[in-house]
Amino acid sequence: MNPHSNPPTTVVVIVFVLIATGWGIFFLNDTVTGSEDSLVVYCAHDSAFSEPILRRFEAETGIPIVVRHDTEATKSLGLVNLLIAEKDHPRCDVFWNNQVLGTMALKDENVLAEYRGPGYERIPSRFKDPDGTWTGFAARMRVYIVNTNVMSADEQSLQDALAGDLSRMAIAKPLFGTTLSHYSLLWHLWGGEALEQWHHDTRSRGVREVPGNAVVKNLVAEGVCHFGWTDTDDFFVARDDGLPVAALPIRLEDGTTICLPNSVAIIRGTNKLNQAQRLVDYLLSEQVELELAASVSRQIPLGPVDPQLLSPDVRQLSDWAQSAYDVTLLGGSRQDCLKWLESEYLR
């Protein structure tokens, strides 16, 4: 057969039927392999940080793990959609998401199982589902990143900059990632109409919308933009590189900060429930939160830890996180906010 010729009609029809019936995800994206005893983990957290933790769990418990990561382009949304597509025939046992709103959407789709183990108990209520379907841990914070060569990193300078021309401010497009979570929180807090008005006002004043938080970090660090929205992990990349940047927490009208945890959940229908519960408790342990806090991304522990084991950077973030907004309130806002944003950007 000529390798460049069109595939046989029968094959095309089979592929179309598989996709149309929801089985195409298994046929086209079957990258999860392992023994029948393997615990399958879908993971949206950066593999550089998640893989050592998962492999240590594997070594300590003897429970084999197969991991499927997302891609940077999908910002965890791809794995959320995959889990929804697979919910009648789940292949995943545990989902480690790098934020919470997508995990809340899985609860709404009845994808998640309830579990309240020792790990769940150590996490404050504002970072976990009261029904036990997901639990947050190891958070990032939304911050203003400021280039200190061109403006002062203080509240008054920031407010002055926000009041005028915004062509030197950068934000990630809010269709994905933590900026979508940020917008969803504002939707919940202000209401859709007020957020739409604010969004159109900032765009009319020239705010620069870019593909992601890392691009925001680069533009500010290089002085192309004076300040912008990003996450603490991206900010620390620039600061560790010796670039002239500082961070200030983004505070809401009531003084609360925006603290966005990782989350972990067990998939409903798993036939490895005991192993899945053991992994969930492991990820929610003090040991793992301290390890992620000590990483270059400086994730914020949410459960109790010895503060003497935290770096000064993380202790500062932990102080800011004490006034974090209750993320459990946001689940219903994400879909409405996303629908509106899609009408703004994808029409």
Structure description:
This protein is α/β, with parallel strands linked by helices and 347 residues long. The protein has two domains: 33-139 and 260-324, Periplasmic binding protein-like II (D-Maltodextrin-Binding Protein, domain 2, 3-Layer(aba) Sandwich); 140-258 and 340-345, D-Maltodextrin-Binding Protein, domain 2, CATH 3.40.190. The chain is built from 15 helices and ten strands. It has helices at residues 9-20, 24-28, 47-61, 77-85, 101-108, 118-121, 155-162, 177-190, 192-204, 213-221, 232-240, 273-283, 286-294, 312-321, 331-345, and strands spanning 39-43, 65-69, 94-97, 112-113, 135-147, 169-172, 208-210, 227-231, 245-249, 259-267. Strands 1, 2, 3, 4, 5, 6, 7, 8, 9 and 10 form a ten-stranded mixed beta sheet that branches. Helix 4 (77-85) runs parallel beside helix 5, helix 8 (177-190) packs across helix 9 and helix 8 packs across helix 15. It is globular, with a radius of gyration of 21 Å. The two termini are 42 Å apart. The model is unreliable at 1-31 (pLDDT under 50).
Short note summarizing the structure:
With 347 residues, this protein is an alpha/beta fold.
